[in-house]
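Student: Hello, beginner here. Can you help me understand the protein record under this note? Any guidance would be welcome.
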Amino acid sequence: MGTKSTYHERIKEEKRACAIAAAEELFFEKGYARTTLAQIAKLAGLSTGTLFNHFPTKELIFETIVKHFWELDPEWDFPPVLGSPLQGLIKFGRDYACVLTRDGMAPLFRVVIAEAKQFPELSLFHYKLGEGTVHQKLTQYLCDEVQLGNINLPDAAKTANEFMSIIAGQVLWPKMLLLDFSISRERAFQIADEAAHMIINNYAR
């Protein structure tokens, strides 16, 4: 009984993964507005009924894709240790750079930006599950370090925004504008480390 149940669960997850991959391909190629659930089902090799069981709406499957892109790999999904603002910023910066350099992240941003006026919920998903969550966690971390007396910041939220902007400006936005732009993970980490040192040099006690 257990083996049979495990088999069905595996098949279910495989179908779900196929649906997500197909939706991602179509969203990036055709855009959100021009993609239908029927097209996603066809590309995924699923019936529309099966797709509907997993994702009743196109909105839900897009939200799932956004969440997937912004999730850290399990081995990196842990908070920085308080006590060293430099090391904490390096941890946050490298995590952020790692996510921004993922294949497909730039196309995802393009879809959100291009269709924000017609589908503002896409921007909301993307911000709440991505940039907004990173900014919130980083701001809280910086506030905690300020409380411990390890760094002097007039505005933790503003500093978090400054830090993230330095990284995104060199890691993500060139890729948004230049289709042939590429950046290695090592270079992205170097940019994150440099941003961390810049913040510390500006605000360290």
